[in-house]
Design a protein that fits this description.
- Helices cover 53% and strands 9% of the residues.
- It has 16 helices and 10 strands.
- Helix 4 (110-125) runs parallel beside helix 6 (155-167), helix 12 (300-316) packs antiparallel against helix 13 and helix 13 packs antiparallel against helix 14.
Length: 471
């Protein structure tokens, strides 16, 4: 069956009647269970269901193939899986199976939901995200009818819908369905159950990635939501396991990254100002108070520093933490200071990290790994790669050698692959990118030191020009 026919079927309710409205994360809306005798419009007339069941040979030869694709990781958000000429046959087999199941067991049989979900995975694998969304929605509606609106049996469908919305670059709807999934977990487990933790970490990271794709003023929502989710997860871990547990470390590091993004948002879009007028500077009666979100942005540096300090305290008070872990955490606090121009504070943190590393039985290798060469400080998805053979995506690594001062700033760059005289615009753009980077400087006897001839690879979009011929 053609994709257009399938789309018309789903849109018109040919597989199932139109589902009720989704309940939101706040519980708004409801689904009432349909009676078992409820009927739906008949299945597609072009599918022969005279046998009363789907063709099992087609099922064995095709439908399970789609499930294997999904179990192996599923399609990416941007790529479709080439299912060859069998795609339409598989779709026809799914529709035949669904029609047979409805005829034998009714429209709200759980097997219909499973078949719809399988068909949705096939549609998504073949890049038909719109029809996949419709099929996932129908499958989820059946789960609600059978198991209730709070049932986690909806999770596979919600995740499928999130994937489809991401493939369509529909960030708002993907976010809304993530919130619905979180709401289901809260309704199922309560807000003190550690089974919430993996999902909270997943959603928080997704919000950070969503912001990174489009760091607009409106994107502050993603950062605030990420911060609140991680803060609630840290509170949950502390409640369940007490202080000093290493379980909290990934969450604290996530909080560091979130606060870095908040600080970067403040740089891009200063809060508390409108058309050059600062509400914070106005103490008069007409001064407009800052919102809680704006206060969170303004406190991002201090909150990030406190998260680093919590990481250090957790490691220092846990006997299972290694010397290298403690030294690394202290060095990362120095990195935080350096990113915000607190050079003196950074020097103090690096000196302490150096001292801690000296307590290791293999002191020199530890010191070399942490401080032997300058290390790029980056808390966002990297736009640069260091000494890498290739760069992510369509970017090309432009090799350079750097002179880095004791404050971790790039003072000079020499191009290996590029002649600046023949490609001045590209060289200028690369230099601007390099000037924005900050490195953890080389540390010698606990003191920040400059470095010469540091190899580095800067990712540049597209293909670099061919080297100019040597005269």
């Amino acid at each position: 069956m053609c994709a257009l026919c399938l789309g018309l079927l789903l849109a018109s309710g040919g597989v199932l009647a139109e589902p009720a409205a989704n309940p939101g994360p706040d519980g708004a809306g409801s689904d009432r269970a349909e009676p078992a005798a409820a009927t739906a419009p008949p299945g597609p007339p072009e599918v022969d269901t005279s046998t009363g069941a789907a063709d099992e040979s087609v099922r064995a030869g095709g439908l399970e193939v789609v499930d294997e694709i999904v179990e192996d990781g599923g399609p990416s958000a941007d790529d479709s899986v080439d299912l060859g000429t069998s795609a339409e046959d598989l779709l026809a087999a799914y529709l035949q199976q669904i029609d047979a199941q409805q005829t034998l067991n009714g429209n709200y049989d759980s097997g219909v939901s499973e078949s719809l979900a399988g068909m949705a995975r096939l549609l998504e694998a073949n890049g038909d995200h719109d029809n996949a969304l419709a099929a996932y929605q129908q499958a989820m509606h059946i789960q609600r009818v059978n198991n209730g609106i709070y049932s986690l049996s909806q999770e596979p469908m919600l995740r499928g819908m999130i994937s489809a919305y991401q493939a369509r670059a529909d960030i708002d709807n993907a976010s809304r369905h993530y919130e619905q999934l979180h709401w289901l977990y809260l309704k199922t487990y309560g807000d003190k159950d550690p089974r919430l933790l993996p999902l909270v970490a997943e959603i928080s990271n997704w919000h950070l990635n969503a912001y990174n794709q489009n760091p607009s003023r409106k994107g502050l929502y993603h950062l605030v939501r990420s911060h609140k989710l991680v803060a609630s997860a840290i509170e949950l871990v502390s409640h369940q396991f007490g202080g000093g547990t290493l379980t909290v470390l990934p969450l604290l590091r996530n909080l560091v990254v979130t606060n870095f993004y908040l600080a970067d948002h403040q740089r891009r879009y200063p809060v508390g100002t409108e058309e050059g007028f600062s509400f914070r500077a106005n103490s008069g009666a007409l001064a407009e108070p800052l919102s809680q979100d704006e206060i969170l942005v303004l406190n991002s540096y201090h909150n990030g520093r406190r998260a680093h300090e919590s990481i250090i305290n957790t490691l220092m008070n846990n006997p299972d933490a290694s010397t290298l872990d403690k030294s690394q955490a202290m060095a990362e606090l120095g990195d935080w200071y350096l990113l915000f121009g607190r050079t003196a504070s950074a020097q103090g943190a690096y000196r302490e990290a150096w001292r801690i590393a000296q307590g290791s039985p293999d002191t020199q290798p530890r010191l070399d790994s942490l401080f032997g060469t300058p290390r790029l400080i980056s808390l966002r998805p990297a736009t640069v790669v260091r000494d890498g053979p290739s760069a992510p995506g369509d970017a090309t690594p432009l090799r350079v050698t750097l002179r880095i001062n004791s404050r971790g700033e790039v003072k000079q760059a020499a191009f290996v692959d590029l002649d600046p005289e023949h490609h001045p615009e590209l060289a200028q753009r690369a230099n601007r990118e390099l000037k924005q980077l900050r490195f953890r400087p080389r540390i010698v006897d606990g003191t920040m030191a400059a470095s010469e001839d540091v190899p580095f690879a800067l990712s540049m979009p597209g293909q670099l020009p061919e080297p100019s011929p040597t005269p």
